[in-house]
Amino acid sequence: xxxxxxxxxxxxxxxxxxxxAIAALLQREAVLKYFGKDAPKWLCYSVASTxxxxxxxxxxxxxxxxxxxxxxxxxxxxxxxxxxxxxxINLLAVVLTARVLGLELGAxxxxxxxxxxxxxxxxxxxxxxxxxxxxxxxxxxAPSPSAEAGLERPGYIPPIFVGxxxxxxxxxxxxxxxxxxxxxxxxxxxxxxxxxxxRFTDLEKASFFGETWWLTRRIxxxxxxxxxxxxxxxxxxxxxxxxxxxxxxxxxxCFVASLMGALLYMPTLLEVPIVGTMFGYSSGAMAPGPALSxxxxxxxxxxxxxxxxxxxxxxxxxxxxxxxxxxxxxxxxMIYGMVAA
Length: 341
What we know:
mainly alpha
């Protein structure tokens, strides 16, 4: 119930519309320029690993956007780098980490999140981009503006529309007072509605709403099931017993922290009090290594997101991606533990 009340209206609904707009309205070339497997690696991985700084999203909210760029033809490497980095390098969460848990851990989280996202993308691309093109998801064709006579539209209109939808997401998840938040979101929604009505064809509107609804039907039921299971696990989790494992920055502690983070659902910003208070980093009960591992794997993945990722990219790619998140988060935690010792 907490998940439904706190995240569906403010996070998931805007995210589904953003994903629908990416899949239906953006020209495929615009997505491939930054996320295509043939794009320059320095460009696509720079964008993918840092774009999450402006998105206050969690491991579930990032999924519709990931599905949108994947259906638009993005390469598996840049797409999975974006999938990990989106929640992991959330600017608000990183700032809160530095203020509450210490500047060193905050800086380590930034460096490790960017590094892990790039490594995940490069490894995924190296493994799966060798396959034949028919193994990839068929890209979704965007309707052409010329499909209806008389429409002349500048090329910057679709990106502006997507930008307005992203602004709705940012405003809805901000810390503003309820009245100010409602006013800003209402203005942005009205502006988005006007732009959609005035500058897009009926075919494009139908494609936009069709893609949004298709992604919602495909993803949301799985999120509900996974979130319920995660809630049961979290309720019965023996926290006091597990805290005794996290006293050192060895492989076992960092691996358990990464595995727990990958399974449990952590809403945006909640990972900071979980690490600091629940598992005792602020009191010295938790070592720096497992703390960083939990901060990397926890926000970027959860059991609900695993189920959806499995559905979107298939069992082989999902299995490798999940394994990479857990293993690389473990390694980064061990490295930081040795440096901070």
